[in-house]
Amino acid sequence: MLNFQKITIEDKDKLNRFLSKSTFRNSDFSFSNIYCWSQKYQTSYAIESGFLFLRFMAGGKKAGYMYPLGEGCLKTALETIIADSKERGEPFRMFVLTRRMFENVEAVYPGKLDYNPNPARFEYIYNTEDLIHLTGKKYQSKRNHINKFKKTYRFEYIPITPGIIPECLELYSNWCKENGNCNDPSLVDERISVERAFGNFEKLGLTGGALRVDGTLVAYSYGQPLSVDTFGVHAEKSLYEIDGGFTMINQQFAEQVCSGYTYMNREEDLGLESLRKAKSSYHPAILLEKGVATEKIQP
């Protein structure tokens, strides 16, 4: 049985030796995401035979594994986690697998697993230049929002530094009040994630930006690179009372932080219709399919 351990902030460099080599562009292999959401998903890790194994709980009930990262034999790595699940008396599951990951699995372990895409977990990946310049008819409404924002408000874009983190946390609390209070069960886990992110912002290697309007912080965004060509946007918040705030922070963050990357991954819609419409309205270049793999039932 693998010796899985709870993830701490001190594990960043150890895990990043594997995570930083990923070319899959998925947000699941961001250490900041793994650490900040580890309480919700009970995420743990093990390193053995040159591979990083990650294990977590989906929906608080179903245990499973992520795609093993390493430079050794993938088949051996798969056999390791399959054996681990059997020793624990659990059905074998691999979560958040991209189509390319499953193809890699199928190549070395053919016909043994079923793969079921989960649209709620698909990730929206955009051409960074599109989000910076918003050119063409399809982005006309976005340009209109930005032009109205510029005419309506006296604003400035500033990088997130330790000195403004208390203001970012205050903004999050105000955003929560606009969305039914942060004590709402649907927001409790997110609040923990946000507090972990801002409480360890520099240690996690996060980069962020914020908007001030008349001296008051009204929007922020932050994230970190996922691969050499893709930047992952982990969070974006704006007060709804600020008309066009989301559009403006999106454009400014793309321009100020992400211009050196070909793509921006703005993560999943979680099956929420409002998020699906918002993310689709920016016309993703790639809708990164992800799903679950389980052992086939043998006749």
Protein model, in words:
By secondary structure, the protein is an alpha+beta fold. It has two domains: 5-122 and 290-295, Gcn5-related N-acetyltransferase (GNAT) (Aminopeptidase, 3-Layer(aba) Sandwich); 125-268, Aminopeptidase (3-Layer(aba) Sandwich), CATH 3.40.630. Helix content is 38%, strand content 28%. It has twelve helices and 15 strands. Strand 10 and strand 11 (216-227) form a beta hairpin. Helix 8 (165-178) packs antiparallel against helix 9. The longest helix has 15 residues, at 185-199. The mean pLDDT is 95.
* Domains (count): 2
Rg computed from alpha carbons, rounded to a whole number of angstroms = 20 Å
Approximate shape = globular
Structural class: alpha+beta
* The CATH superfamily title of the largest domain: Gcn5-related N-acetyltransferase (GNAT)
Question: Biggest sheet, open or closed, and with what strands and sense?
Answer: 7 strands, mixed
What is this entry, summarized?
The protein has helices spanning 12-19, 31-36, 38-41, 74-87, 99-108, 128-133, 140-152, 165-178, 185-199, 201-204, 245-256, 273-280; strands spanning 5-6, 44-48, 51-58, 62-65, 69-70, 93-98, 113-117, 123-127, 155-159, 207-213, 216-227, 230-238, 263-268, 286-288, 290-295. By secondary structure, it is of the alpha+beta class.
Observed structural traits:
299 residues; alpha+beta; Aminopeptidase; 7-stranded mixed beta sheet; 5-stranded antiparallel beta sheet
